[in-house]
């Protein structure tokens, strides 16, 4: 048995011992190419050996700072000790009796907790699945069952998952939908405000009013409002480029839903659990959704997702009509309870605000330094959900996907794990764990800034 690794304790977090990827990772990459299909994408061509907090060490001994957090899954960091201890205790009791066969208290306790902390003072109920896409699929099933309607509206640039209903609601064609049709019927898309790319001369207020006004035309030209079961929206678009709407727009969508008896589903898979500065992003907009989907950071990296909603809506499906064999596993439930405890006791949503301020402060200053013709078109953040959009020209705002790819590759080479996003692939997104230290955050931002400066020459 290998000895337990010592805690990370260096002044400088990043330590690069070999090129990225190193020789051991290169050998594993050969095995991956032979035995794993090319479809599952990989951001950094390395293999993990251990991780803690916001740091990850690969099989070649290189230690990197993690600004991706498993695509927003690790808000409480890699291997949080409280979660690990809870998992060890659970492992000694039982692994998986399946809630549909023999129930266990942690499932009910987590449902109680989510019913209490999600937006709204009304009676709520919660049930669990394994993935964000499953949560979306089941939220749509519940909405259709409750309303007796079929149509579902999502938004342009939205991402809701890779299963068929979730993929049908998703907007970006490549890589998510190309060649996988036909898609689920009775799904429709509306525009979503992108203030940085608003038509010339249009203010945010005017853009919101224009898009909300299009609902009236949509209900005349596509499907009547009284036949729409639900509108599903990300409070902040994740894969779409960390596009942040105004409270006015989100409240306007809710008003449209109330007018026509449509349910509002908030997809908080990426925005939930402290990322935006509150436990859930919908709190930022003063809107209470009818249903909410959650996953990613709910359980510190274990596969778990949830649908929470008004009790009367959630009770619409009959016995056996919703669920899944692995949904709400005991390991996932005890992990999630500890995650929420950490969020509350360590005030991690507040920490998210400080992280976002550091990121935006750094890159707004760099944007100003580089001047009007510089590549940084927009810097946007809500809490620690931060994005830097790169463009070829600040006037035309032509996306610079190629520069974005070069910056990420350079950052990876220097020891920073970071990802892109956006319809045009030109947005650098930052999803560092909320437990990252100030020193690690500054070091990671230094690497990202240096990488950008290197790539623009």
Automatic annotation (TrEMBL):
InterPro entries, per database record: 4NH2But_aminotransferase_bac (IPR004632), Aminotrans_3 (IPR005814), Aminotrans_3_PPA_site (IPR049704), Class-III_PLP-dep_AT (IPR050103), PyrdxlP-dep_Trfase (IPR015424), PyrdxlP-dep_Trfase_major (IPR015421), PyrdxlP-dep_Trfase_small (IPR015422)
Keyword Transferase: yes
Organism classification: Bacteria, Bacillati, Bacillota, Bacilli, Bacillales
Identification of the protein by name: (S)-3-amino-2-methylpropionate transaminase
Superkingdom of this protein's organism: Bacteria
UniProt-listed Gene3D superfamilies: Aspartate Aminotransferase, domain 1, Type I PLP-dependent aspartate aminotransferase-like (Major domain)
Span of the signal peptide: none
Chemical reaction(s) catalysed: (S)-3-amino-2-methylpropanoate + 2-oxoglutarate = 2-methyl-3-oxopropanoate + L-glutamate; 4-aminobutanoate + 2-oxoglutarate = succinate semialdehyde + L-glutamate
Pfam families: Aminotran_3 (PF00202)
